[in-house]
Structure to design on (273 residues):
């Protein structure tokens, strides 16, 4: 008899009422496995429910990644370990552990154009999503422009709350351009409100010592920068442009060797284990 035939209409109805109908996709195979291994009822139930729990966890992670607007191509296991860039590997392993999130500490990633700052920031965002954290990734200019425009329709508090409420805010290309008075106030507000309350990752071509000149208000700038840098890790990246490797991968040419993939896999397994 086909294993699928053993699933009665009544069982299907009950599973659907309990919103467990996805179990039906793998239930025939699980029934066959249970029969072959003479599995105890409790073990069989655990196996089936574990399948559903894993499916829901995966779906929840995918939804968090979508809401965060993380780049799906910028995940740690996709990093090209042969890239000619250098940064503190010991510090990176500490960051991948996400212990800085538990302490509400911050991260400032600094380096020249194209060395992979955004990639590494988004990679940490993906790991955070897998661990159940809420994340928001946004370019600094877009974030400040959104807040400026929100004042026109009285939605400022709503938009500001979106940047304050998440567990991890990734702000890309911070201090790339000079900020006007309103943008300086908003940047100050976000940094001071999230200080000790939620972690932030900033990527920038400029070091924090150069940010002061990019604010319109030196006092607000000093206040925000002091708070941020006093509780932040600094990851400095140097080397050749990483973007060319991303272009190579998108064009369909192999971007990594088998050994490089193995190294990257070992890194993600060690960091999430």
């Amino acid at each position: 008899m086909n294993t699928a035939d053993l699933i009665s209409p009544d069982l299907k109805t009950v599973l659907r009422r309990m919103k467990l109908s996805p179990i039906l996709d793998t239930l025939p195979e699980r029934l066959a496995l249970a029969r072959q291994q003479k599995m105890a009822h409790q073990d069989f139930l655990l196996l089936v429910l574990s399948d559903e729990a894993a499916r829901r966890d995966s779906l929840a992670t995918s939804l968090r990644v979508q809401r965060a607007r993380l780049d799906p191509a910028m995940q740690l296991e996709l990093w090209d370990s042969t890239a000619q860039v250098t940064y503190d590997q010991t510090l990176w392993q500490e960051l991948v552990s996400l212990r800085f999130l538990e302490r509400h500490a911050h991260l400032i990633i600094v380096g020249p154009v194209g060395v992979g700052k955004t990639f590494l920031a988004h990679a940490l965002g993906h790991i955070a999503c897998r661990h159940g954290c809420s994340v928001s990734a946004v370019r600094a200019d877009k974030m400040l422009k959104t807040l400026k425009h929100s004042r026109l329709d009285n939605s400022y508090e709503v938009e500001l709350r979106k940047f304050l409420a998440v567990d991890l805010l990734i702000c890309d290309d911070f201090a790339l351009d000079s900020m006007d008075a309103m943008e300086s106030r908003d940047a100050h507000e976000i940094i001071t409100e999230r200080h000790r309350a939620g972690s932030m990752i900033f990527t920038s071509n400029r070091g924090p010592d150069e940010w002061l000149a990019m604010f319109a208000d030196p006092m607000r700038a000093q206040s925000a920068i002091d708070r941020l840098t006093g509780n932040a890790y600094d990851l400095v990246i140097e080397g050749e442009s990483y973007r060319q490797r991303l272009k190579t991968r998108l064009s369909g040419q192999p971007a990594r060797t088998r050994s490089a993939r193995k190294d990257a896999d070992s890194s993600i397994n060690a960091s999430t284990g």
